[in-house]
Amino acid sequence: MTNQWLLRALEESRARDFLGPVPFEQQIEHATGFAQAWSDVAEGVPTSFLDLGSGGGLPGLVLFDLWRCQATFLDSMEKRTAFLREVLLWDGAPEGGHVETGRAEALARTPRLNESFDLVTARSFGPPAVAAECATRFLKVGGYLIVSEPPNDDSASRWKPDAVGQLGLHVIQRVRHGAAYQILKKVRATPDRFPREVGVPGKSPLF
Fold it and tell me: Residues 147, 131: contact at Cβ < 8 Å?
């Protein structure tokens, strides 16, 4: 049964037009697919995770409610991060939630976030090259990036091993848990030049 705090948070997110009309049951199922993908490559619960482009709170709020671990919600839009800060103070919210407002390219270099997380999740954040470059510096070496993918199982070619290798990432596998998810592992420290300046990953993608 869905935690009442989580359901209330999702309802408020929809009321503020941060979530679309898809039934909450389906949205929660898609979010929990990230947890299933994590279980495909790691044991137990991550010590910490960062939800990249958290927006209306998916998948981050669902995973935070499920795992009850340290969670950071990152988005560049103040109205969305204000909403997330608000719901994290409601009765029933898990402890250990943090919110960051700003662009990933800049925030990834701050000491408190640099190579600090076991897991980064990305749902509708952007093309593969953008998601990978913006996520990699947040991850500890040995951590994982899990990205929600289009339903076409032929789209594994969206991820270029040589290109993501420049970022310190290794393509692990594409999995399906209802929806499709791409899993990458950080195998070496992020080179100093990545991520590039704000906006550059999108304007001049690596692949």
Answer: yes
Q: What is the CATH number of the domain that holds 180?
A: 3.40.50.150
Residue 93 pLDDT greater than 70, yes or no: yes
Q: What are residue 5's phi and psi, to 5 degrees?
A: -60, -45
* Number of domains, the chain: 1
Q: How confident is the model at residue 152 (pLDDT cuts 50, 70, 90)?
A: confident
d(CA 111, CA 2): 35
In a domain, 31, yes or no: no
Q: What is the pTM of this model?
A: 0.96
C-alpha to C-alpha distance for 35 and 49, rounded to whole angstroms: 11
Helix (H/G/I), strand (E/B), else coil: 17: coil
